[in-house]
Amino acid sequence: MILATPGPVEVPLFVRETFLKEIIHHRTPEFKEILIESLNRFKNLTHLDEAVFLSSSGTGAMESAVINVVKKKALTINAGKFGERWGKICNAHNIEFKELKYGWDTPASVEEIVSEIKSGEYDSLFIQISESSGGLRHPVEEIAAEIKLINPDVIIVADGITALGVEDIDTTNIDIVVGGSQKAFMLPPGLSMLGLSEKAVERIGSGRGFYFNLANEIKKQRDGSTAFTPAVTLIIALNEVLKKLEEIGLENHYENTANRHKALISAIESIGLSIYPQVPAKSMAAVYFEKAEELRKVLKTKFKINVAGGQDFMKGKLFRINNMGLIDEWKMKYIVDSLELVLEELGIRKYDSTAIKAYNIDRF
Ligand SMILES: *Cc1c(COP(=O)(O)O)cnc(C)c1O
């Protein structure tokens, strides 16, 4: 079965091989060296001064950012399930917030956010870079730059779980960026990461919470240790993934990902299907399709390809194909070609290899 969902993504063999080695103790010089190495590599990737890893899925890092950063009131952006989550976290902790809501296909409005921030009520903004529910890219860099012009003390927290490792994120005006292991980092689930600016560390102060107290973790991890037992095997594997991406060259990796995305989108459009979001994120192709569930079923049973469906009110109306990680070229070609074959199977369009042609023309 080809796992073509936009998280979890397939775990390459070189990553799985790291799990065959003997487990090492986390309070050893060996592990300390690996932890520091991988934190440094992660800092290099996020262009931020500080980094912290947590043993949790991505949502744990989102929760830690919310509870440690908001001292007054948060502004949260909701254009999908993950944006909605900021508000749910605030509610769970009785943290004051206001939510700006957008359609799942609609990027957040810079003007609207700016006018909200001008009220002076907010000390933080929470947003997704790539909102995975609709495969949408928010103009986070622009929003962050505008907010910092108005009030540099507003801490900008960006969920980069389906953006880090996909494209180079300009974090000049971003204070915290959140990552998760099972998306573009090609690892099994269970590790989350945060990149932090000095300003974010200042705001966190002595921190809040217990397990997710970021002040404790920052202090420990600066010295190559952790407050609690870390996800040792995942951190070792992350170090190998980041090493591999550096070998390939981050710029080359981003360029290849962007090019494959362009080719995938043009293949999908060439067979009459439409891309759902107004501004597509490079992490995936999210396709609006009324027979999405039938299509996913045939893809899975006949072609052994697992793509994601829609969530919530988009269930049955959307399917999403992953574009994160080091995807074997033959696999993407097979997915594109199979997609066209499924349309014939569903009686929608006669197969004439249009999709794979469009893909190949744009790909190289
Ligand atoms: C996957 C994902 C998350 C985190 O989900 P977990 O299941 O907690 O790892 C958060 N934000 C976005 C945009 C995601 O795609």
TrEMBL record:
Gene3D superfamilies: Aspartate Aminotransferase, domain 1, Type I PLP-dependent aspartate aminotransferase-like (Major domain)
A Pfam family reported for this protein in Swiss-Prot or TrEMBL: Aminotran_5
Listed transmembrane segments: none
InterPro entries tied to this protein: Aminotrans_V_dom, Aminotrans_V_PyrdxlP_BS, PyrdxlP-dep_Trfase, PyrdxlP-dep_Trfase_major, PyrdxlP-dep_Trfase_small, SP_NH2Trfase/AEP_transaminase
Coiled coil ranges: none
Keyword terms: Aminotransferase, Pyridoxal phosphate, Transferase
PROSITE patterns for this protein: AA_TRANSFER_CLASS_5
GO molecular function annotation: transaminase activity
Cofactors named for this entry: pyridoxal 5'-phosphate
Domain called Aminotransferase class V: residue spans: 24-311
Cited SUPFAM superfamilies: PLP-dependent transferases
Entry's family note: Belongs to the class-V pyridoxal-phosphate-dependent aminotransferase family.
PANTHER family tied to this protein: 2-AMINOETHYLPHOSPHONATE--PYRUVATE TRANSAMINASE (PTHR42778:SF1)
UniProt-recorded name of the protein: Alanine--glyoxylate aminotransferase family protein
Organism for this UniProt entry: Caminibacter mediatlanticus TB-2
